[in-house]
Write a structure and sequence with these properties.
Helix content: 10-25%
Mean pLDDT: 91
CATH topology: Jelly Rolls
Strand content: 35-45%
Order of helices and strands: EEHEEEEEEEEEE
CATH architecture: Sandwich
CATH class: Mainly Beta
Number of strands: 12
Largest sheet: 7 strands, mixed
Oligomer: single chain
Structural class: mainly beta
Strand order of the largest sheet: 1-2-3-4-11-6-9
Distance between the termini: 45 Å
CATH superfamily: Jelly Rolls
Amino acid sequence: MKPYFNALELVKPKVYRLTNTTINTLEIGNFLVNECQLNDWPSARVCLHRDDKSFLMSMLIVVLNKFNYPPHRHNWKDESYTVIAGTAFYHEYCALSKTIDSSYELRESSFYYNLNRGFHAIQPVTDVFLFIEHTTGPFTSQQLEFLSN
């Protein structure tokens, strides 16, 4: 039996919802790593918020094998990151030149608050990067804007 089988519900590929109110982040992180490896996913998450109508969206996210999500922005919300395990760089991009404007190292136990709402990306430098992302809700189906080449 999988750890936390009764505390997690798979709501769509790579996304679980927590059905319990107390978790061990490292144990859930290990569960997510195993699920990624079994399903050949580059990342997965557990939504810690009650539902898509919540005003605070919190997610435990794992990224494997230095997977890079493309630079993007969402000008309707702020977000913050708390690193549980691993290391990554948070990059902010200049929209005109499409180059990195600034970078911040995210290490275990570090926190970063993204309030600029510009183009950004997280570039993991370890094979496992586990973090908690908090953002404002409720969930919206607005599309992310990607920084095109």
